[in-house]
Amino acid sequence: MSPPTPRLRRALLVLATALAALLCAPAPLPAAADGPADTAPVADTAPAAGDGPADWTARPAGGGADRDARPYVYLEGTPGTALQDRLAVTNSGRAPLTVRLRGDGRAGAWIGFAADTVTVPARTRAEVPLALMVPPDAVPGDASGEVVADDGDEEIRVPVRVRIGGPTLAALTVEDVEISGGSIRYALVNRGNAMLEPRLAVRADGMFGTLLDRPERPLPLELAPGRRVERTEPWPDAPALDAVTVRLRVTAPGGARDEAEASATYVPVGPAVGGGLLVLGGLALLGSGAYRRRRARRGDPEPPDTEAGGTEPPGAESADDRQPTTETRPLVKAGPLVKAGAES
Length: 344
What we know:
The structure is a single chain. This protein has helices at about 5-25, 105-110, 270-300, and strands at about 40, 55-60, 75, 80-90, 95-105, 110-115, 115-120, 125-135, 140-150, 155-165, 170-180, 185-190, 200-205, 210-220, 230-235, 240-250, 255-265. By secondary structure, the chain is α+β, with helices and mostly antiparallel strands. The termini are far apart.
């Protein structure tokens, strides 16, 4: 009998875990104490899809039994303060796991870990303390970043959100609006110090009325302070022949608001070329007719028609002109020679 495949072994492992869960309730994990990295045994369960590699996960610690209760690390503080949290790394595999931890992004650069490298035994969870130091000169508002856990082959990124105390300013601009065929390109820039969730409204007017009117709707993005995002708004039913003006209006909570517009002219390429040739041909005919009428009024002779048969241009020699000519004179018969003064 051939050995079971890795997929079959994993399926058997999941079934065994489900059976164990039905027979006995899982014991609660002991509370973690302060230290470089605390470990606790965990059940032999596979993580849900999308959490990262199949045999380990990384997420904010705590949050109760629901592992999605804390989708990111959230901290609040004033400039110059140190904020603390914990990161849970769960090893569901059969071998020890070693991961390296680092911060990424603006807020990620402020994070320090109790241990940058953590080894987690098989079927065990480790909680690693982390500290985030808000710079003394940090601008009040929102800052974002990530905690990155990397095992050498794959990595998991845990979002970090920091609310810095103090007055906040929500400011948003829409820039570089461009109309290109069936799409509208534009850029959004967060000019304030607060995290923004922008909303967009689009309107397009042509020569004969409104062509496009999309009411305000939320965009699927979070715009961090100082961030610029380029986006494209589809317009599949753009006109084939018209002069249009497109207006974009963006808003965000906190009073952020801005508008921008762009204009474009839609002209079909094929009909435009054919129409241009037709116009040029008509102008040529009109010019020729006007020229002939002007010559007729002045009495100028018409130019010879070189296409008529037998007609030669002026100054050309005919075939007869090129033959030698012979002058014909009457013949005079000579009579008898008479000498003057001779007597008969």
